[in-house]
Design brief:
This protein is α+β, with helices and mostly antiparallel strands. It has one domain. A two-stranded antiparallel sheet has the order 1-2. The N and C termini lie far apart (29 Å).
Length: 60
């Protein structure tokens, strides 16, 4: 489960960016989502986002 950063603030010692699965486990998914700074991203959306990012990179 990827968590996407949607906040305009930050929490000390937690990256203010999209978090990897490993980081989500480290900091606690429920806690991060409850802060309102992160939202859950479904695997389908994650794969589609990766596909779009690769396409954009190739176009550069």
């Amino acid at each position: 489960m990827l968590l996407k950063f949607v906040g305009k603030s930050w929490i000390p010692n937690i990256p203010a960016r999209d978090l990897t699965d490993e980081e989500v486990k480290k900091f606690g998914e429920e806690y991060l989502v409850k802060t309102g700074l992160y939202i859950r991203v479904k695997e389908e959306s994650r794969a589609k986002a990766d596909e779009i990012n690769l396409k954009v990179e190739k176009e550069k």
